[in-house]
Design brief:
314 residues, alpha/beta, TIM Barrel, eight-stranded parallel β-barrel, 10 helices, 13 strands
């Protein structure tokens, strides 16, 4: 049973009944790694569902896509879609590179790709999935654009805008339903260029990754200035938020976790916690028995609508 198809209207994600959907979810690790280590199975997704997640973000590293081969990698994604169909979870497929796609300079060899490979990835994904399922709600075009303070060359917003518009063109040649997500600069944090030059495409969303280290306190005014303002006009989704906390940590209302969730939800911004894995930090899991870290415990409560400062959500 596939999920009802999501669409964009104004600054909202809507279900087929026209009701706004606020996504709360988690990122898992790359399926290629999980499969190699014996953790790629339906039980992982059952545990994600038990967290209260209605969205799972699946990061596909270019090195894994090439190494496994697209044909074999699609088999892993097919399994994820099948399990998510059965469990009633939406999927965000994320091309998980970090760096400067214009100059093809990246932060680590696992992120190395090219414009050609990136376009070919989206062509392969959309050829494979077009029209098949509403469960894949989002195509996250490129995980984290950054020049790493000039170490990875330079790229203007106009360049980045054009690359995204070209990716969206490739996707829409096959799939006009799934929602493309476009990331801001500064490791997908900064959406201020939207004030001047929004992406020239309808029916898309924008991505921010507002980790606690991005700005010094007080955070809220800076969040508003750097990305929150965009949610007044466009659908925005924080496809990575996260922090480190040992099990049993008691968070105060002005700690990052409660502050970011309350801020995002107050703006109608969907969010995805990083990372539902014991190895990739900041980790939500302590181990593969699915014991949660302090951050994992917090985000589980948040996904069930139990965050300090807010009552239960509908």
């Amino acid at each position: 049973m596939q999920q009802p198809r999501i669409r964009v209207q104004g600054n909202k994600f809507l279900d087929p009944d026209g009701k706004a959907v606020l996504f709360r979810g988690v990122s898992i690790a790359d399926p290629d790694r999980l499969e190699h280590e014996g953790h790629w199975n339906k039980h992982l997704f059952e545990e994600v569902k038990g967290m209260g997640a209605i969205l799972v973000r699946i990061p596909v590293h270019p090195i894994a896509w090439r190494g496994r081969t697209p044909r074999e990698y699609l088999k892993l994604l097919d399994q994820a879609v099948t399990w998510c169909n059965e469990l009633g979870i939406y999927v965000d497929i994320d091309w998980h590179s970090i760096g400067n796609l214009k100059m093809e300079m990246f932060q680590d060899p696992m992120y190395d790709t090219t414009q050609k490979e990136t376009f070919a990835f989206w062509r392969a994904i959309t050829q494979h999935y077009h029209g098949s399922t509403g469960t894949i709600a989002f195509y996250e075009l490129f995980n984290e654009p950054t020049t790493y303070r000039g170490q990875l060359g330079s790229v203007s917003w106009s360049d980045w805008k054009q690359l995204n518009e070209e990716m969206i063109g490739v996707i829409r040649a096959f799939d006009t339903n799934t929602i493309p997500l476009v990331a801001g600069f500064d490791w997908a944090y900064d959406l201020t260029p939207l004030n001047l030059e929004p992406i020239n495409a309808e029916g898309i969303g924008y991505v921010t990754h507002p980790y606690p280290n991005k700005r010094s306190k007080p955070w809220v005014p800076k969040w508003e200035e750097d990305f929150g303002f965009a949610a007044d006009k466009y659908p925005v989704i924080a496809t990575e938020i996260g922090f480190s906390a040992p099990k049993g940590t008691v968070l105060k209302d002005d700690d990052y976790g409660p502050l970011i969730v309350n801020y995002l939800e107050g703006k109608g911004i969907s969010w995805v916690a990083w990372c539902y894995d014991p190895e990739w930090g900041p980790a939500l899991l302590q181990n593969w028995d699915f014991d949660l870290t302090g951050a994992g415990e917090f985000f589980k409560q948040a996904m069930h609508g139990e965050v300090a400062g807010k009552g239960p959500h509908n």
